[in-house]
Design goal:
There is one protein chain. This protein is an alpha+beta fold. The protein is built from 15 helices and 24 strands. The protein is globular.
């Protein structure tokens, strides 16, 4: 396993390096970038759209419109979503990555190998790599990063199974676990596997002025306006990148983002709004790819409930809310009828998919549950939150009207995106529109579902719903420790069934991501990895800027 981590051991069919959390109708950022979906995309011009076999032309600039802004570049402190990972991947590299088949592969690491029981992992660092300030990449630098991630309130829970990180020689790190951890390398593809120049990380300067080993060097960041980086002339992947400068512009409203692309203000955009896909997919003026035919797990759109606060701490209320949502109406009204309904975190074709018992729309059942609750405790009323975009408001108003028919009153609150995520972390909400859980290996969702991360309201908790179910915890631990596909499949199917008992999440539909670009932007979906294997063309709105080029 020198160049590729044994895929059979990890059962990884694809891993996203983007954050796993966003709100319905618009991207909300998250923290440690939960592993998630990737794989082949359908396109507007054929299965090879966005891929070029022509000789690359170095030079030029590209401007990419994103759905959100981030709150900084520090992987231990800042909450990254798809935008955050796009930013990160310009200036930083990860220890591991995935290929188009979903196999986990070394990146800054030259190799990563386990002992026989998966309680120790040996990471050999790629030689002759330097940070943007000339500091060499060493095992000590990797240890500094892993230790910082482990110590951070935000990211520490994701790596809580690590007992120690030890440098055994200048280019080798041994990571020892408290218990067997079969899919550990998967976590190094995410925010927890980014490597920052040690002094830059420890000083906190990386939050505003990041220094990494990535293909581009930080030039300027004006929050809510633009982030610009320039070509790294000393990048360890010889000859790359091709583009001289990449600028990202956050444009939260999807229609405004599309208009900017059409007017030429930007060269590329991503979106999880199906209206953008409908508008651009058939337009020959642009090259558009999407993940509707992805072989990997997608994000799910749902309503997340804070089970630790009233009235959501009463199972009858959570059940009533679930029965009252007409999924088909939401999909047809808001998402152009494109995505399928969801009844759990997994989709057909996944080894973890199975009947969950999650209910269909049943207004009469919802009304009956509401009457039961009201007879004991009075009317049901709560705040229903989302981010501050027109599409997000439209979704909440639609669901609000459905709940009203069941006898439930809600007040919609739109919250600035960064604060929105902080509220979820601290448990300062009752119900939120949300998007999360894209992952081919469900261990990536361990911190989101674990009882160990369901802290009391007011404390930071990665289990945002604060759902504390011993049976879910037992299954999570079984899935993490086993390399047996049958054991893992049974464990995660049981979790999906428990969610249909606990109702922390009100499932609606899978999310669809797309990226669209002017034809002058070549090969944005055709990246390869250091070993020559293909990278995923697009993962949750994230494409590689390293091997794209401009045909001017």
């Amino acid at each position: 396993m020198s160049d590729a981590i044994d895929r059979r051991r990890f059962l990884a069919q694809g891993i996203r390096t983007a954050a796993g959390v966003a709100v319905l109708g618009g991207g909300a950022s998250t923290l440690l970038a939960a592993c998630s979906s990737g794989g082949s995309s359908s396109t507007s011009t054929g299965t090879n759209a966005g891929v070029s076999t022509a000789t690359p032309k170095p030079g030029g600039t590209v401007t990419f419109a994103t759905e959100a802004e981030i709150d900084g570049f520090d992987p231990t402190k800042n909450r990254w979503d798809s935008t955050g990972i796009l930013y990160s991947r310009t200036v930083y590299d990860n220890l591991t990555t995935i290929d188009a088949t979903g196999a986990v592969k070394p990146y800054l690491a030259q190799s990563i190998t386990p002992n026989s029981d998966f309680t120790k992992w040996t990471i050999t660092i790629r030689p002759n790599v330097v940070f943007h300030n000339g500091t060499p990449l060493t095992a000590a630098a990797v240890k500094t990063n892993l230790d910082a991630v482990r110590a951070a309130l935000l990211t520490g829970p994701a790596l809580s199974n690590i007992a120690s990180v030890d440098v055994t020689d200048p280019m080798t790190v041994v990571v020892s676990m408290k218990a067997p951890w079969v899919p550990f390398p998967l976590y190094l593809t995410t925010q927890t596997g980014v490597v920052v120049e040690p002094a830059n990380l420890l000083s906190g300067n990386c939050q505003q002025h990041p220094i990494g080993t990535g293909p581009y060097v930080f030039q300027q960041w004006v929050p809510n306006d633009h982030f610009t980086s320039t070509k790294n002339p000393h990048y360890w992947r010889q000859g790359l990148p091709y583009v001289d400068q990449v600028t990202f512009r956050p444009i939260p409203d999807p229609q405004s983002r599309e208009n900017s692309l059409k007017s030429g203000t930007v060269d590329m955009m991503h979106s999880s709004d199906t209206q953008n896909l409908v508008d651009l997919q058939g337009d020959s003026s642009f090259v558009t790819i999407d993940d509707t035919r992805s072989v990997f797990e997608p994000d799910m759109d749902f309503v997340m409930l804070n089970t630790a606060v009233a009235p959501m701490n009463d199972i009858r209320v959570r059940q009533a809310l679930a029965y009252a949502i007409d999924k088909k109406k939401v999909i047809n009204t808001v998402w152009n009828g494109l995505p399928p309904q969801s009844f759990g975190p997994f989709v057909q074709g996944s080894p973890y998919f199975g009947p969950t018992g999650y209910p269909d729309f049943n207004l009469a059942k919802a009304q009956s549950l509401v009457k039961q609750y009201q007879a004991e405790k009075g009317p049901i009323s709560f705040e229903f939150g989302t981010i501050n975009t027109p599409k997000a408001l439209e979704i909440n108003q639609l669901v609000q009207a459905m709940w009203k028919q069941a006898g439930i009153q809600t007040q919609i609150a739109q919250v600035e995106q960064t604060q929105f995520i902080l509220n979820a972390l601290q448990g300062k909400y009752q119900a939120y529109s949300w998007r999360q859980f894209a992952t081919p290996d469900p261990d990536a969702n361990y911190v989101w579902w674990s009882a160990g991360t369901a802290a009391p309201v007011g404390s930071l908790a990665l289990n945002f719903a604060r759902n504390n179910d011993p049976q879910v915890q037992q299954a999570l631990d079984q899935g993490r420790a086993s390399a047996d596909p049958a054991v893992r499949s049974a464990a995660y199917q049981s979790i999906a069934k428990r969610f249909a008992v606990d109702f922390p999440y009100l499932w609606i539909n899978r999310a669809i991501w797309m990226v669209s670009a002017k034809p002058r932007v070549q090969n944005f979906a055709g990246a390869t990895l250091p070993d020559g294997s293909k990278a995923p063309p697009m993962i949750d709105g994230i494409v590689s800027t390293t091997q794209m080029w401009v045909n001017s």
